[in-house]
């Protein structure tokens, strides 16, 4: 079931998606794929549609696209058997894939998966490799950037800074990241009397979602 619209959108046409260097394509219902992803909609139905219903994603990985295909048909991201750190890292990869193929439903599912793991573990994916991956793979204004910055603003303690100072990592974080953290800290100080009692992703998870096509949170 395609979760974004709550409808079964399969149709009879089939599309093939070639991912990375794999010669064996993913076989997915054309209508399901184009209804969920703006990128695939343009690639399969637009003016410059791919010949024969084949689409090539040479820079993507099969491990990531596997999850997308399963999500398309089930509406769920399965993390069973994954360690916490692996699940958080994969969720980041899934969001970035959703960003590339312009599928806001999949992006939202990836964000929810991150937040569910954070809620159950109280461990925040905000180390150097995570921040670098997010900032090097997204543009200014990205919701995933906002989430990582908020993890630092609301989930960090002095030990986080001590750790990275001791390891000599402070200069390796993207400058845009430190700017956003600094601006957020100033904003918190100015609005201290109105500071939320809950984490912002707990009080309003929807602010980290995209809802141009999918239903808004209730």
TrEMBL record:
Coiled coil segments of this chain: none
Domain BTB: 15-81
InterPro entries according to UniProt: BTB/POZ_dom, SKP1/BTB/POZ_sf
Name of the protein in its database record: BTB domain-containing protein
């Amino acid at each position: 079931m395609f979760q974004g619209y709550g409808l079964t959108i399969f149709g009879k046409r089939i599309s093939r998606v070639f991912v990375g260097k794999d010669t064996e394509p993913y076989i997915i219902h054309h209508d399901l794929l184009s209804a969920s992803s703006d990128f695939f909609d343009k690639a399969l139905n637009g003016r410059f549609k791919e010949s024969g219903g084949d689409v090539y994603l040479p820079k993507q990985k099969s491990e990531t696209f596997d999850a997308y295909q399963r999500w398309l048909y089930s509406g769920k991201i399965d993390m069973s058997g994954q360690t916490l750190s692996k699940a958080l890292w994969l969720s980041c990869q899934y969001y970035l894939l959703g960003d590339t193929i312009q599928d806001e439903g999949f992006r939202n599912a990836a964000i929810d998966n991150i937040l569910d793991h954070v809620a159950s573990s109280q461990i925040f994916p905000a180390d150097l490799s995570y921040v670098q991956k997010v900032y090097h793979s997204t543009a200014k204004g990205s919701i995933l950037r906002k989430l990582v910055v908020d993890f630092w603003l609301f989930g960090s303690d002095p030990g986080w800074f001590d750790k990275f100072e001791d390891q000599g990592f402070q200069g390796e974080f993207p400058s845009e990241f430190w700017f956003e953290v600094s601006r957020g800290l100033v904003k918190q100080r100015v609005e201290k009397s109105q500071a939320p009692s809950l984490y912002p992703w707990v009080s309003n998870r929807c602010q980290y979602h995209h809802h141009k096509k999918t239903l808004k949170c209730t």
